Each structure stands twice: as C-alpha cells, then as structure tokens.
Amino acid sequence: MLLYDFDSYILPDSNVLRQNGVPELNIVKGFRRVPKTFFYTPIQFKEIVEKVKQMGFSPERFTFILAVTVLASEGRIKALMDFLVNVMGFKASFVAKQPYLLGLSLEKRIVPRGLFVKDLISKGLLAKVSGLTTLFASSEKVFLQRFVYCYEEKASELLKLYNEKLNLAAGEKLKTPKL
Predict the structure, then answer these.
(1) Which of 101, 152, 166, 167 has the fewest CB atoms within 10 Å distance of its CB?
(2) How far apart are CA 120 and CA 179, in angstroms?
(3) Tens digits of per-residue pLDDT, 126-150?
(4) Which of 51, 74, 97 is the last residue in one of the domains?
(5) How many CA atoms does the CB half-sphere of 89 hold within 13 Å?
(6) How many separate domains does the chain show?
(7) What residues make up the domain containing 114?
C-alpha cells in the first residue's frame, strides 16, 4: 500500500466513485476492507466502474464496491452470472442484488448445489427455489437437512447424487458425510 501514491491512485479512484453516486461511507468501508481496489490507474478504474454499472449493480449499495473489487477477476463474475442466469434460470437483476454470492466458491458450493437442486426439481421433489440464501449461503449441514435428509425414503440416493455433483465440480476432491 505504501508503494502507491495517494494523489495518483487513491484520490482519483475515490472521486470516480463519488461522481458515480457511491456514498462516502461505502467508499471508506471499501478502502478499509479491500484497499487494493483503489490501486488501479484512474483510466482502468473508470472502465471497471462503468462495467459494474452496466451489470446492474446499484452505486448506492456496498455491493457496488464489492463488484468493483471482484471485477479484477472478471472471468469469475462472468462464470457466476452465466451459471446462475443461463443454467439455473435466475434473472440477472435478481442475482446482482445478492452480494454474498461473490464470496462463495463456484466450484465447491454454487455449481454442485445448483445442479443438485436442478435435479430435485426435474424429479418433481422440489417445486422451485424461492431464494438463493438457503441454497448457497447456508452451511453444509443445513443444506443437507433442507434438500437431502428431508426426503428420508430417497436420502441415500440423493446424497449419492449430491456427492456426484460435488465431486464433478471439485475434481473428485470433496465428499459429504454418509448417512
């Protein structure tokens, strides 16, 4: 952090955020949490901010700062949006309002759980997914109770199916506890 000039990077990047309607509190909070966000050249930073706005993130919410931070790994955001919108069928605007998704592993959590629940829906065991929090933000134990163990007569079959999805996404490295 000491290698970067305040007047050349941090101040201009902060001004870009202000000009785009980001509240001062969110700018300060963003700098405290992830200072590296403010170390882009002003030209690069403006481009990132524009991309985040085009993705539908609201400058008034802290998720805007998080999206700017994560956009340096732009491929990850595209993969996340592609999976949740094109594979799972959620609306992009709905996904953009779920900031916690940016911190979750695509390979270890989002893809295996998403594909598993999609299978539950196709088998008629689940009508639809009402929210993303229960599906993705819950602990492994809560997820298994909510989507696997509750179907007692099919629990071992479903646990096997979930393990297949988990291992496929993680390259055969992860396993869930057996019944």
Answers:
(1) 152
(2) 19
(3) 888 777 888 898 999 998 888 888 8
(4) 74
(5) 7
(6) 2
(7) 105-179
